[in-house]
Amino acid sequence: MPTGFEYAPAPESRAVVDIASSYGLFVGGEFVDPADGASFKTVNPATGERLSDVAEAGAADVDAAVRAARRAYTQVWGPMSGAERGKYLFRIARILQERAREFAVLETLDNGKPIKESRDVDIPLAAAHFFYHAGWADKLEYAGLTTGARPAPLGVIGQVIPWNFPLLMLAWKIAPALATGNTVVLKPAETTPLTALLFAQVCQQADLPAGVVNIVTGAGATGQALTEHPDVDKIAFTGSTDVGKQIARTIAGTRKRLTLELGGKGANIVYDDAAIDQAVEGIVSGIYFNQGHVCCAGSRLLVQESVADDVVRRLQRRLGTLRVGDPMDKNTDVGAINSAEQLARITALVEAGEAEGATRWSAPCELPDRGYWFAPTIFTDVSQAHRVAQEEIFGPVLSVLTFRTPAEAVAKANNTPYGLSAGIWSDKGSRVLWTADRLRAGVVWANSFNKFDPTSPFGGYKESGYGREAGRHGLEAYVAAGSED
Amino acid sequence: MSATTATSQARDLLGVSALSNRSLRTWLHGLPPVDQVGAEARAAALGTRSIKTTSKAWAIDTAISMIDLTTLEGSDTPGKVRNLCAKALLPDRADPSTPRVAAVCVYNDMVGVAREALGDSGINVAAVSTAFPSGRASLPVKLLDTQDAVAAGADEIDMVIDRGAFLSGDYRTVFDQIAAVKEVCRSNPDRADAHLKVILETGELATYDNVRRASWLAMLAGADFIKTSTGKISPAATLPVVLIMLEAVRDWRALTGAMVGVKPAGGIRTTKDAVKHLVTVNETAGPDWLTPQWFRFGASSLLTDLLLQRQKLRTGAYSGSDYVTED
């Protein structure tokens, strides 16, 4: 019997999911082998074990997928009534709910995120996005879109998504595209393809017409082949700012449309009148949720000088209670870093922070021997000039800066090339509104952080990209003005 | 600590020359506010910890040892109190390794009965005093009530605060009453000082901000324990309220170096509920509070469920309530 309150392991069973030893591409409603037979492995970042081999799509495979999508668009999906399309989306949403546990386990194995988060956040939200957009499919004329009363689909959409929320980002991309009458070719990230391939099976189970959804797995070259394909009408990308810029250059001068959801360095502003204990919780969920692999993470804490020491002390105490380790354990709060590459990047930036003179504090937790791990970390004595205050780390690393007046808080918050998210903590409603009005960020949370809902639009300013996803605003990105006859 | 020393310590902490109602108000209202949505979300998250096997066995035994086994009915009889004491002494006759509870909690007039039944077993007698549960009596009556209990051999006094005074902003009255009762707790020269548990009756305080202020006010006036409820008002102990009180004792320790205990009372009936509270103690105030000295459950039916779950862990089979004595 333990002498204190040591939680015994409470592992989720992995028996609910069958992982094939290899996967093909999902093109035209079928799993097919890639033209040149190339493949790559996907691993469990918590252990380093190989989970499966996944086909690597080349240009010929991407071309086949785009042609399948075009055929489906012209012959079936485009002409179909919105009400009919909605039925398919509702069916997909219900299947996602029915198979939620299977999806959650697979997501955690492939991504390294805690089962608590894949089970309670990723999968329910993915289903919610399909439900929400299913409801819009037959009501687009009444959505008050800028395209007028006859919103028309764009055609074939190429979509490239990141590894931090694999199924959720798939849902953000596919649900609105299908609801508005488009067909899609989607490329998941090379480190996390498995839930997208399980989603392909859901499309089959839902009897979705062949070619409406196509999934091509691969790395950067596959994504490039997709963005360069001449018969794609629009590219939707979520990922790093660097890749986003490359895509924008590639597409410049073509007729293709583009929406980009890129990086961020979100400011989390804590005023001295805030509910401090709840603000500490919000800071924790702002930066340590999903190991900090969140583009809208609150990675810059701006705290009023008069309460800064107190907030940092409370934060350190709270980080001592975070449980880092096996993502399949239901009690785990912080899981594995997604890949060796990402771990190397986080480590390099943290070393730069120390070298530049910021003070590093890491939670005293034991990290597993195998797999990729990084202890939750706080930098204090950070100045705006430090790299850890400016660059996106995409890991469980918080930079703490202080301010004296509301104007200074706003100036510091806006002084970044990014503009995706921000948080404001104050007990005073007027101060919250005053601040929110002045922040150049796509999403501003008040007395909360990292809250998502399909009805609420999401997107960035400046180098965080353009276009909005979810809500009515998200529909705009997938429609054009139709004929008025 | 006499009432004068309580006042002088409070003056030091507040940094004022006179402990007036205004200085108390300024200080209590200067505490950080509580965000209701955030506090309830945190409590809900703490309630989802998954507790298995060895941890559960430890949690069950610890929870049993933290119980103030309670009967507070107008219809209580000496016989009923003796039955309760017998259960406190031998919670599970089938398994003598079962820990004993911390205390038996009764009305004032039953203190003698309980004292006699428990003997020198080490199980404390707790008495509810100060015109429990309403607290609607004059201070001399409340002090006499407490004196009665202490004289009859109570080891612990559970007093109620004057919620009317608190809600009207008369913090000085609440402070003075707690400090005066505390002095009575120390008045028996033949016995160790009785421990003072201050019941905030959080269900009547309505807001989490009030719960936090009342917790600090009670600690300032010399409470050894802060307790949620009488059990006569709904809602009684809820997890968010206990969370706020645990934050208060944690912060009080950071400020003064002294520890104060926390006792949720009323409405905690199942092992699952008790475990959620222990998780909240562990992750909020810290493991130092995970002993009967610093955390108690005020409960009557909780023990039954804990014993059933304990039997199930030991034998692998769930035997049913007929295999645990009722009281």
TrEMBL record, chain A:
One MF term in the entry's GO annotations? oxidoreductase activity, acting on the aldehyde or oxo group of donors, NAD or NADP as acceptor
Going by the entry's taxonomy, the superkingdom of the source organism is recorded as: Bacteria
Q: What sequence ranges are listed for the domain Aldehyde dehydrogenase?
A: 32-479
> Which family does the record claim for this protein?
Belongs to the aldehyde dehydrogenase family.
Q: Which InterPro entries match?
A: Ald_DH/histidinol_DH (IPR016161), Ald_DH_C (IPR016163), Ald_DH_N (IPR016162), Aldehyde_DH_dom (IPR015590)
Q: Which UniProt keywords apply?
A: Oxidoreductase
**Protein name, as recorded:** Acyl-CoA reductase-like NAD-dependent aldehyde dehydrogenase
From TrEMBL, chain B:
Task: Quote the catalytic activity from the record.
Answer: 2-deoxy-D-ribose 5-phosphate = D-glyceraldehyde 3-phosphate + acetaldehyde
Keywords, alphabetical: Lyase, Schiff base
> Per the record, what is one GO cellular component?
cytoplasm
Q: In which pathway does it act?
A: Carbohydrate degradation; 2-deoxy-D-ribose 1-phosphate degradation; D-glyceraldehyde 3-phosphate and acetaldehyde from 2-deoxy-alpha-D-ribose 1-phosphate: step 2/2
Entry keyword Lyase: yes
> Which family is this protein grouped under?
Belongs to the DeoC/FbaB aldolase family. DeoC type 2 subfamily.
Q: Does the keyword Plastid apply?
A: no
Give the source species. Allobranchiibius huperziae
Q: Which GO terms describe its molecular function?
A: deoxyribose-phosphate aldolase activity
Top-rank taxon of the source lineage equals Bacteria
**What protein name applies here?**
Deoxyribose-phosphate aldolase
Its EC top class is lyase
